[in-house]
Amino acid sequence: MPAPRSFDYAIIRIVPRVERQEFLNVGVVVFSRTGHFLEVKIDYELARLAAFAPGCELEMVRAQLRAVETVCRGGAEAGYFGTLSQSERFNWLVAPSSTIIQASPVHSGLA
């Protein structure tokens, strides 16, 4: 049996009105330094968001979520962020933010 590997993860949230502290979970970003793994999964079905926050610009939200995926993947398409290590990209993605796209506190686990 292989030894368990540690990983960190954070939930990706849409926070349409920061002052109300209400959010909708739409994805997860997972990082394992020992597993050389960084990936994000996002649910682009935003019908719940339309009901939760009428008037929210869904295409703008989708564009920002795609940017999260681009930074996570790295490479030339991500510009400067594409040159960063997986660890640095994860830390940037989960850093506290006051924008409409935010990450939960980071949690750890073993797999």
Question: How would you portray this structure in words?
Answer:
The protein starts with 5 loop residues before the first strand and ends with a strand. It has one domain. It has helices at about 45-50, 60-75, 85-95, and strands at about 5-15, 25-30, 35-40, 100-105, 105-110. The chain is of the alpha+beta class and about 110 residues long.
Low-confidence stretches: none
Per DSSP E runs of 2 or more residues, the count of β-strands stands at 5
Structural class of the secondary elements? alpha+beta
Order of helices and strands: EEEHHHEE
- Hey, roughly how much beta strand do the residues contain? 25-35%
The total of helices stands at: 3
The major sheet is characterized as: 5 strands, antiparallel
Shape: globular
The gyration radius over C-alpha positions equals 15 Å
Number of domains: 1
- How confident is the prediction overall: mean pLDDT? 94
Quote the distance from N terminus to C terminus: 12 Å
Helix content: 25-40%
What is the fold's blueprint, element by element?
Blueprint (H helix, E strand, L loop, with lengths): L5 E9 L9 E9 L4 E6 L4 H6 L5 H16 L12 H9 L6 E3 L3 E4 L1
Antiparallel strand pairs: 1-2, 1-4, 1-5, 2-3
Q: Top keywords for this entry?
A:
111 residues; alpha+beta; 28% helix; 28% strand; globular
In a nutshell, what does this entry contain?
By secondary structure, the chain is an alpha+beta fold. It has three helices and five strands, in the order E-E-E-H-H-H-E-E.
